[in-house]
Specification:
With 147 residues, the chain is α/β, with parallel strands linked by helices. The chain contains four helices and seven strands. The relative contact order is 0.18.
Length: 147
């Protein structure tokens, strides 16, 4: 079943709806995200707001008036200066679309892409294969006892 997500900022993002999202996040997605950032020695990162999820097509087809506030509000919104050093919290977006991710991490095997601000990464797409999600759900499903 396909559900319309009118609150989404992007016209190009596909969503997956499942019953027990927390189980998939905690058991599959977050361990991959942690491993990915650990290999880069990135300690502070956050997932982009769900309604703000973006696609590579947002960069290609959005006009500047739409794109810049979207990019600022959800990706580089926490840039600040501490002791004359500019700092930002790295943001990431989980994508089910492998075409958003042109790179493969040599240590984790995770497909990703990154956006740089003055040669420093500020945003990552991290690809999660839908097959991995389905496999995880099958391995971790418990049927009700009163069937």
């Amino acid at each position: 079943m396909i559900e319309e997500r009118t609150e989404s900022k992007s016209n190009f993002v596909g969503y997956l709806g499942i019953k027990d999202c927390d189980k998939v996040n905690e058991g599959l997605i977050l361990p991959k995200v942690r491993a990915f950032f650990d290999t880069r020695n990135i300690k502070y990162y956050k997932c982009i707001d769900k309604q703000a999820s973006i696609s590579d097509l947002d960069f290609k087809y959005s006009n500047f008036q739409y794109f810049f506030p979207h990019f600022y509000d959800f990706i580089v919104d926490e840039i600040h200066k501490t002791n004359d050093k500019v700092e930002t919290v790295i943001t990431y977006c989980i994508t089910l679309d492998e075409t958003n991710c042109s790179k493969i991490c040599d240590k984790t095997g995770i497909h990703y892409d990154e956006f740089l601000l003055y040669k420093e990464p500020v945003f990552y797409f991290i690809y999660i294969d839908i097959k991995d999600i389905f496999s995880f759900l099958r391995r971790n499903s418990v049927l009700p006892l009163d069937i």
